[in-house]
Amino acid sequence: MALKIDATTCTACSACEPECPNTAIRAKGGTYIIKEDKCTECEGQFDEPQCIAVCPVDDCITFI
Question: Which pTM does this prediction carry?
């Protein structure tokens, strides 16, 4: 599985990008996106996805 950033609620604060252990998050078009092929939901590395843990906007990053 992977995660998705909702472009309509993303504030482009960049908090999520440095927290991703797989470098799956990058800026694109004034918001951030998650590359599905690189996202592991932090399984085996952390108890929860780190991008969700640091995102200041509720429900901006969701499971797809």
Answer: 0.94
Q: Which CATH number fits domain 3-63: 3.90.1640.10, 3.40.50.720, 3.30.70.20, 3.40.50.2300?
A: 3.30.70.20
Encode pLDDT of 34-52 as tens digits: 999 999 999 999 999 999 9
Of 1, 10, 2, 8, the closest CA to residue 54 belongs to 10
In the chain, which residues have pLDDT < 70? none
